[in-house]
Amino acid sequence: MTRRELAHWARQPVEVVVGLAFPVMLLLMFTYLVGGGRGVDGDPTEFLVPGMLALTMAFGLESTMLAVTQDLNRGVIDRFRALPMVPGAVLVGRSAADMLQSVAALAVMAGVGYAVGWRWHNGAGAALAAVGLLLLLRFAMLWVGIHLAMVAGRPELVTAVQILVWPVGFLSNVFATPASMPGWLGAVVEWNPMSATATAVRELFGNPGGATGSWAAEHAQLLAVLWPSAIIAVFFPLAVGKFARLSR
């Protein structure tokens, strides 16, 4: 199933390139045009790039959601049911291919970030831990997308569902510190799962984080593990259960 998804990308390279280019365009836009890192003491680029790495883990889910809904509507799932295979392999194969694409996206974003002046300062071990937290967030978001795709059922509804990702992404500390926001908004932002991951990877990379001294900011690395784990614990069984019901 994983090879099948990778073969689709090989036949449709434009889709892959667009998926990799979109977060790069956002990074360059916020670095040079819009401005990012408001409220940060230090280099705003070193604040912005780790946040954009976290935001990248939420983008691109529409390709996974479209693939799932298209398989459902084209009868591909029915053909798979006639084969001697574990039914869950369809979802696991799709998620494995998506995670490979996420690794490529992180590599591209890190390379562009390095080119615009971002650096990490805490060694290879901490950097690998940061990458692990980013991929954990992606894995959690992926199962949310798979479940919502099966709930939506049709490719034309995927765009409407994908819009839900934007509030989660932008209501975070990716572009600005919570201290630079109104008090109530800053509190909401600090408890956003994406904010936890962004703050945690900034700490691991040794980049400025605009710490506020709150419990969420002081325990960002713990929350960066707990939030995705909780999301996976909820949406993985929901997705598997929904798929089992669709396959009957």
UniProtKB/TrEMBL annotation:
One Pfam family hit: ABC2_membrane
Protein name according to UniProt: Transport permease protein
Residue intervals passing through the bilayer: 12-35, 47-69, 103-120, 126-145, 157-176, 220-240
Family matches, as PANTHER family: NODULATION PROTEIN J
Keyword Iron: no
Main localization (coarse): membrane
Residues in ABC transmembrane type-2 domain copies: 14-246
Membrane topology of the entry: Multi-pass membrane protein
Compartment annotation: Cell membrane; Membrane
Upper classification of the organism: Bacteria, Bacillati, Actinomycetota, Actinomycetes, Kitasatosporales
Keywords, in A-Z order: Antibiotic resistance, Cell membrane, Membrane, Transmembrane, Transmembrane helix, Transport
Keyword Membrane on entry: yes
Protein family (similarity comment): Belongs to the ABC-2 integral membrane protein family.
